[in-house]
Each structure stands twice: as C-alpha cells, then as structure tokens.
C-alpha cells in the first residue's frame, strides 16, 4: 500500500499543531476589571486619581496615548485545584503589571500590534500565577497601561480579554515540539531522509492526537521526541544567540512612553530568566538604564543582579544608539565617553562592542573613534536594507578614513528581531557570506520597541534547537564571547575601506530641519562654552561647570538618537524636543556670556567689551558693534579688549547696484529672476559659474516619500521654482547686499546675499516660511570645474566621493552627508559650498546641490511646515580644498567671534592668554575641556586634510605635564614635563588627545 501523500500529511500536521495551540489554555473564570484613566502617566501611589471606569471585554477605556492604572481581581475556582493557573490579559495596549510596591513585574503587549508577522507574533498576554492551585485563592493585580501598540498605533482602546485559565503544560510543550520539527522539515530538501522521518513522525503523532487528552499527548510526545533527540555532527557553523529588544528612544511614540516601554520590556526579561536558566539577554543605551534607575529603582537593582550573574549583558558603548551621519565628531566621542563611563561606574564593565543595529549609515571616521575609545568590535545589520547593492560581507574588518580597522559583524539573518526558529538558523547558514572562512555567526532574537524582547516561544524553540540534527548548533551567550571567538578567525577576513553607506533613508539628512539647526548650533555652542570654562578654570576663576555640562551634553546626545535627529519620529517628539532645544540653547549661551564676562573681568576689563576667538588661528573679520562696523583681528584661542582688536580698514571696492554685487575680489551678476549668472574672480581672472547656466536657483521637486526617503528619480519631477517677487540692492558698511523675496505656492523665502569688502566668499542668509506638502526644496550651483571627485567634510576629516554615475554603486550614492562644506576642485582652482546647519548634498558632474527643506507627511504630518533660517556660502578659491584651507572657512561660518562685556573685576588680574597655538594649517583643535576625573585639561586635535603633519604646539599657561591620552581620557604616554611646548606628528586624519596638567 502506498504511503499517504506528503501534501496531505503536512496539511494534517499543521491542523494538529493549531489544535494543540488552541488547547493549551482553558478558561475557568473571568477577572473583574476597572481602570483609572489619565492623559499622562501617574506614579503607583497616585494610581486612583484618574477617570474611573469598570470594564468588560469590548468596552472602550482610552484614546491614543491615554494612560491608565488597571486593577484585575478574581477568585480561582475550586475545580481548578491542582492545575497550573495563568491569567490571559489583553487591554489592546501595552501593560506593565506591578508588585505590591509598584515595581514592574511583567510587560504585556496586545495581540494585534503591528509587526512583521514573518518574524513571529508580537503579543504577550500570558501571566504565570500559580504552578498548582488549591482553589479559592483571591487574585488582585495592578498594571500601568498605555493606549497604544508596540509601534505607537491606536488599536481601538478597548479591553479584549481578562480571564483566569488553566495552562496544560504537556500540551504547551508538545506544541513547541511540533512547531520546531515541522519548520525544520519544511527547510530541508525533499530528498532528505531526515525530512522524511520528521514528517512521518509528526504524521504518526497527529494520528495519535485525533483526540487530545493527557494520555494521547504523552504518547505523541514520545513519538516526536525521538526526532528531537537526534543531534548534529561536527558543526561547520555555530550560531551564537543573544536575547534582544531593540528599543527606539522615541519614534512612533514620545520619549515618555519609551521609559515605560523599557520597564515593561526589562521586567518581562527578568521573569523569563527565572523560567529559562540558559537565557542570556543584552541591552544597549545607558540612557535607558538611567531612566530605569531614576524611575524604577527596585527593577534596576534586579537588573544589576542579573548583570553581576553574567546573564544580562550591557551593550553598546554609546549613551544612545545615535545617528552617525549628522552627529558631530565631538558628539560621537561624548556618546562613547558618557556611555562607557556609565557602564563602568554602574556595573564595573568596560564595553568592547559598539552596538548600532539600526542607524542609517556609518561615517568613515568611526573606526578611529572606536579604537581610541577601547572599543574593538562593531555590530550592525542595517546595511542589509540597501536598495541597489549588497554589502559583500557579514564578517569583515572595517577600515576608516585614517586607516584604523575594527572587526565588524552583520548578523546574516538580516534582522535584530529574530524568531529564533529553524528558518532563522537555516537562513543564517545559507546566507552567511563569509561561511567559507568563518565558523561563527550571531543571531539577535526577540521583539523590540515594547514587544518585551524574547517571549516563551523564542526560548522554547532554542531549547529544542541547541544541537538538533538538520540545523547548525546554537548556543546562548553574550555577544562579547561571540566576538572574541570571531576575532580568532580574523586573519582570513577581508577589509572594507571607507564609509559604510546605506543606500536608503537619504531623506533623513534633511527632514525636520529645525532640529538639525539646533543640533549644529548646540554642538558649536558647547564647544564655545567648554573653551571659555576651561580657560576660566585654569586662570583661577569660577569652577568648571562639569555637572551642568554633562547634563546638557547628555540631553543633546539623547536627541541625536537615530529616529529623532534624522527626522523620522511623530509630531509630538518634535514639539517636545524643539521646546527643550530652545531652552538648552538659551541656557548654554547664557553660560557662555557669563564665562566670557568673567574672563574679561579677570583681565581687568570691567564694563569694557572683549572679543573672543575659540578657533585656533588668527581671524580677521568685519564685526558689527551696535550700529558700527569694525575690522577686528583676534589671535586664535584667545581674546582681546575690543579696542585693541579693531584696526582701521577702509571698505573699498564694494558695489551694489541693479543686477550686481562686487568687491575687490569678486563680481556677482544676477538675471531678472534673481539667479546668479556670473561670479568673476578678479585675482584668478576666471569665471566661476558654468557657461550659460544659472546658480542659486531654488528648485521645488515633487516628493512623494516619507521622512526617511524621497524618490531617487526626483530630478525627473520638477514642480517648479521659487519665483522672485522683488529684490533690493544696498550697502551696509563694508557689505554689498542684495535682498531677495521669493514665493512658491503658500511658501515665502527671504534671502540676503552678502559680499563683504575684501571677502572671498558670498553668503546667502536665508529665512523661509515653508508651507508645502509633498515637496522638496533644493538649491544648486553649476560651476566651471571639471573633476571626477568632490570632497565632503565629515567628522574628524573629509572623504572623497564620485561626481560620476558610471556604476550602480555611484548611482546609489547620489545623496550624501556632509557637515561644514563640500568642495569641487581641480588642481588649480575649486569652489566650496559651505553651510551652517544642512547635511544633505549631491554633486553630479559640475553641479553642487544642497537639500534645504522637505515636507513629508509620515510619520509627522506637519514636518517642516514652519519658519526656518539657514545660511550657506559659496567660496571660490585658487588651488584645491587643502591649498585653500576650506576647512577653516567652514569652521568660521559655524563658529562666530563672540563679544562680551567684562563683569566686576576681581582682586586677581591676569593678562589675556592664548590657550594653545599650532603652527600647521592642517591641524585643528576640535575641543578643549576639563578632564572628567582630574584637574587636567583635555585638548582634542586632528589632522584635517589627509596629509602627514608635524606641528609645534605651544600652550599659553605653564604646564606641569603633557600626556597623550585616549578618548576615554586614560593616559597613553607621557610626552613632556615642566614645559609648555611640544612637537607632534600626525598621520592623515589622525585624532590626538592631550591631557595637560596646568600649574596653579
């Protein structure tokens, strides 16, 4: 007699699996439910202050983002005596059950949460109550709820389920036996004898389970158990698995909900650790741990115990998982400085792995930052999202712009929400691009963003898959153990050099422009404040405001999270962050003014105006003092009394007339539409603008994308250009000015184009009222330069990128990140486009293009419909970007000279100090600050242009010692004692940090 067809057998097996699933829980009673609803979260002691409602399944309790304290009460019926009792609860939102003191005990997630179902089901609704009930026990549980699913969506706001149930443990166990074996069979080839035996075993068990009762379940478990017991042989690949719950600190929910998501997730992890002794979990982002410490101290102590035990791995090195395209270089350093210090101080562990699974590309300066912070490894998976080209490796050495390498691994499953199912292990084995030279791969399993991380389904599967014939073996272990094992294979790994560019999400370089404006301004303001505070502290003035600076820095770092600064969160996130940004901005500038006023007073200039230059080179600029323009010359990293800084200089050669601005160096001509049609460089006797082209054209494109992406072919869908309404030519002191007024649709733009006397650059100071939807505003400069590459300013250096689109890699890299400038140069001449707050750039052929504003409607329907201000500048120059010191022009646009009036003089008077001098034009001082744990000053320098540089460094104060230190401020080498001078040598783009002891 022939065997039953596989199709029929598999169908029967699947039906049996579903029957088992439905039989696991048996309802024996209902819970009484009442809730106290509020608009914002309230603490446990205030749990009954909200609007009180009694609920039955189907009753509505809240709207999106409402909060509520739920009380569940009931009695276990006598007929349930001896049974394992659970509660099944689903409030159509996220819920955190608490103990008698209000400490989180377990998180629950509604079953119908949005989630990628290929990765599993997101709901968590089962609450273990008693392993064996006596009957008659009273139940009372409290829970803190949010009326949103794990992705911030509204799911009716109604109570779905609240019951007492018996859990049939034998059926539950058999269900997972079926699930794992069935999926394994489906992943094996049809010709596999292993598959045939598994299918037959499951089919026989299914026939046995025509009636589901304890005896039949025991028989079926014995049948399938024989196949589960079969182990693999010597493995070619071992998978390291670690529990994971990627938590976006804001995204489709506000920051306040993230804190609650953290408590729900972490309490669920702790409960599962009690049930599954082999379970290892990891979590990154010290900011999240800090919130737990402040808001849930008892929960935090439980986490610390699991960390001490070795079953909970702190991960990530950085304060948050930040965007690395837009965040400044010093900000990335501070992410690691504060992140690693937190983990060391709280848990006694030094982080060795950078954990960035979800950020939108990786700057080429990051490997050096990591290596000089003691971070040896990096994990991400986001590159798998690229749209045109596949990254060639999963395990490789990533080499940065300076030549530093860091061992990097991309989990081959291409997700950080693995279901830990047989299909996961099969995909890892089949897709691992480096399986020819590596026998180890990483799997991150669990459900993030409030999904509670791994559930029982993940852990039950792993218990059966440890060494299951037909799959690569899997071991639960910390990621550091995995990387240490991977490093032993590293000699055979390839190296990938340059930035890790994500071929997706280029819109995030522009979306939510106001946040990006504040980010740039605050990064520069904090640099200014630390310079003034360091100098004041060294001179014996006020103490260094270390605690306040750390507090401000950490909030700025929070807003650099990869769904806040890039612009991909909901409206509320930006309403709240913009409000906080404005307060931080005012606070930092008030502190700058106070420190500079005290420095001037300390020098004896009470009531007199002083001018401060925090850049490390002499600056000669026109400044406005009240209604008067003056020419100021200020030494680098120093300050002067204003009357000593100003020099007589006649503003010669400036002209502003219809259609023209001019000074002694440049003549700029405009057409009737307000576009620039000519920039003539008199010194070099050449035209800057491409023949017959127009520059500074505000082009509006159709943009059907969301916050993350705009159409790659946007150039084919021009919606129009902003139209010139009127223009005014005038002069103001040393400035020739053209003021232009533009309109497009419901949007208005006012631009003040400024050409100062003797200046080499043209500034475009812009204010815009942007009210469009589904549009993108860009400005372009076609220039008379021919080059296959252009230079982009990035953190701690620069990177060369193609102007051609010859290959799919070049085509995909059309929109790129740059900070202060991009530059297109021939050996003899070039043009730089500078900016003070923009990041999205494109250079194709001879056209420099800057992305100014977008207006997507998801996830924030109001994105960028607001008032904006920004400045960009065009700097034509002789030679290339290095010869022309373009990096200095970029810093000068972003770091203005500062005026301050001296405060009341102290008895101690000090002469003005030039804090540091360097004699090489390619060495930049990025920051100066007081050391975290001593009275030393930290000076962070780097080589800007990709050359070898030897420079003399002279400090303006008596030095006891000069040491080189790493980015964690740990001494590396003593360089000099009792001397204020030293000579340093830099390799291309090298970062050096000096730890300097100053004599009192």
Description:
The protein is an alpha+beta fold. The chain has 18 helices and 54 strands. A hairpin with a 2-residue loop joins strand 38 and strand 39. The chain is elongated and about 100 Å long. The mean pLDDT is 96.
Q: Tally the helices: what do you get?
A: 18
**Main sheet summary:** 9 strands, antiparallel
Strand order of the largest sheet: 33-34-35-36-45-42-41-38-39
Characterize the overall form: elongated
The helix content is 25-40%
Rg measurement, Å: 32 Å
How far the N terminus sits from the C terminus, by CA atoms, comes to 99 Å
Mean pLDDT across the residues is 96
Q: How would you classify the helix and strand content by structural class? A: alpha+beta
Number of strands: 54
Query: Proportion of β residues?
Result: 25-35%
Unreliable stretches, pLDDT < 50, 5 or more residues? none
């Amino acid at each position: 007699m022939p065997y039953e067809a596989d199709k029929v057998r598999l169908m029967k097996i699947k039906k049996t699996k579903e029957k088992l699933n439905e039989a696991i829980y048996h309802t024996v009673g209902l819970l009484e439910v009442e809730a106290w609803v509020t608009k914002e979260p309230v603490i446990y002691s205030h749990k009954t202050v909200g609007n009180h409602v009694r609920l039955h399944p189907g009753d509505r309790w809240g709207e999106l983002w409402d909060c509520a304290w739920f009380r569940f009460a009931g009695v276990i019926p006598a007929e349930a005596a001896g049974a394992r009792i659970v509660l099944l609860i689903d409030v159509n939102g996220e819920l955190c059950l608490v103990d008698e003191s209000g400490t989180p005990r377990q998180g629950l997630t509604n079953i119908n949460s949005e989630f990628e179902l290929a990765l599993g089901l997101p709901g968590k609704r089962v609450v273990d109550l008693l392993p064996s009930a006596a009957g008659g026990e009273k139940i009372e549980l409290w829970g803190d709820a949010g009326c949103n699913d794990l992705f911030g969506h509204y799911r009716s706001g109604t109570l779905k389920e609240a019951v007492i149930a018996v859990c049939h443990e034998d059926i539950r166990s058999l269900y997972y036996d079926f699930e794992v074996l069935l999926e394994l069979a489906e992943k094996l080839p049809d010709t596999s004898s292993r598959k045939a035996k598994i299918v037959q075993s499951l089919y026989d068990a299914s026939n046995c389970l025509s009636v589901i009762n304890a005896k039949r379940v025991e028989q079926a478990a014995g049948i399938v158990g024989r196949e589960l017991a079969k182990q693999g042989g010597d493995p070619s690949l071992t998978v390291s698995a670690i529990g994971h719950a990627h938590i976006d600190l804001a995204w489709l929910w506000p920051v306040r909900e993230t804190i609650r998501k953290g408590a729900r997730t972490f309490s669920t992890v702790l409960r599962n650790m009690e049930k599954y002794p082999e379970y290892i979990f990891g979590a990154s982002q010290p900011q999240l741990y800090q919130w737990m410490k402040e808001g849930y101290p008892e929960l935090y102590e439980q986490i610390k115990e699991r960390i001490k035990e070795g079953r909970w791995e702190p991960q990530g090195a950085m304060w948050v998982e930040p965007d690395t395209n837009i965040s400044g270089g010093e900000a990335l350093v501070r992410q690691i400085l504060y992140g690693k210090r937190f983990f060391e101080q709280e848990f006694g562990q030094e982080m060795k792995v950078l954990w960035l699974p979800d950020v939108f590309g990786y700057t080429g300066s990051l490997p050096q930052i990591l290596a000089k912070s003691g971070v040896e490894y990096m994990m991400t998976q986001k590159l798998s999202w690229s749209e045109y080209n596949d990254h060639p490796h999963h395990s490789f050495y990533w080499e940065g712009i300076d030549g530093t390498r860091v061992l990097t691994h991309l989990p081959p499953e291409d997700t950080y929400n693995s279901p830990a199912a047989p299909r996961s292990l099969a995909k890892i084995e089949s897709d691992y691009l480096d399986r020819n030279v590596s026998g180890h791969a990483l799997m991150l399993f669990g459900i993030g963003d409030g999904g509670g991380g791994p559930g029982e389904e993940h852990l039950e599967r792993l218990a059966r898959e440890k060494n299951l014939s037909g799959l690569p073996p899997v071991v639960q272990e910390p990621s550091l153990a995995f990387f240490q094992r991977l490093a032993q294979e590293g000699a055979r790994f390839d190296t990938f050099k340059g930035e890790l560019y994500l071929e997706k999400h280029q819109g995030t370089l522009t979306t939510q422009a106001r946040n990006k404006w504040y980010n740039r301004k605050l990064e520069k303001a904090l640099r200014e404040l630390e310079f003034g505070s360091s100098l004041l502290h060294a001179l014996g003035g006020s103490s260094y405001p270390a605690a306040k600076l750390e507090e401000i820095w950490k909030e700025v770092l929070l807003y650099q999270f990869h769904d806040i600064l890039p612009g991909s969160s909901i409206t509320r996130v930006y309403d709240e962050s913009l409000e906080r940004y404005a307060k931080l901005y005012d606070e930092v500038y008030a502190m700058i003014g106070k420190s500079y006023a005290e420095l001037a007073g300390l020098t004896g200039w009470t009531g007199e105006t002083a001018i401060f230059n925090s850049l490390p080179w002499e600056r000669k600029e026109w400044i406005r003092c009240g209604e008067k323009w003056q020419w100021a010359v200020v030494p680098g990293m120093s300050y002067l009394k204003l009357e000593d800084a100003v020099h007589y200089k006649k503003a010669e050669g400036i002209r502003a007339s219809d259609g023209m601005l001019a000074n002694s160096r440049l003549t700029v001509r405009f057409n009737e539409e307000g576009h620039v049609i000519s920039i003539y460089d008199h010194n070099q006797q050449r035209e800057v603008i491409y023949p017959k082209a127009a520059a500074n054209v505000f082009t509006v494109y159709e943009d059907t994308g969301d916050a993350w992406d705009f159409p790659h072919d946007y150039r084919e869908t021009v919606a129009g250009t902003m139209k010139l309404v009127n223009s005014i030519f005038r002069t103001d002191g040393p400035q020739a000015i053209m003021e232009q007024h533009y309109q497009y649709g419901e949007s208005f733009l006012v631009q003040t184009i400024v050409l100062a006397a003797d200046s080499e650059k043209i500034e475009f100071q812009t204010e815009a009222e942007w009210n469009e939807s589904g549009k993108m505003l860009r400005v372009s400069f076609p220039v008379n330069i021919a080059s296959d590459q252009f230079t982009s300013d990035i953190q701690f250096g620069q990177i060369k990128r193609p102007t051609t689109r010859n290959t799919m890699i070049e085509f995909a890299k059309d929109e790129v990140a740059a900070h202060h400038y991009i530059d297109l140069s021939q050996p003899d001449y070039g043009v730089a486009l500078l900016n003070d707050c923009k990041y999205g750039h494109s250079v194709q052929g001879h056209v420099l293009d800057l992305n100014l504003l977008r207006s997507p409607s998801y996830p924030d329907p109001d994105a960028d419909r607001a008032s904006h201000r920004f400045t960009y500048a065009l700097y034509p120059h002789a030679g290339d970007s290095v010869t022309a010191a373009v990096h200095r022009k970029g810093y000068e646009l972003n770091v203005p000279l500062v005026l301050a009036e001296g405060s009341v003089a102290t008895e101690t008077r000090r002469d003005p100090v030039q804090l540091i001098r360097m004699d090489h034009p390619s060495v930049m001082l990025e920051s100066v600050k007081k050391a975290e744990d001593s009275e030393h000053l930290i000076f962070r320098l780097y080589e800007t242009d990709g050359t070898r540089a030897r420079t003399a460094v002279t400090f303006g104060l008596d030095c006891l010692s000069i040491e080189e230190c790493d980015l964690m401020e740990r001494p590396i080498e003593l360089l000099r004692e009792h001397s204020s001078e030293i000579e340093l040598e830099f390799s291309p783009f090298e970062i050096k940090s000096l730890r300097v002891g100053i004599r009192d």
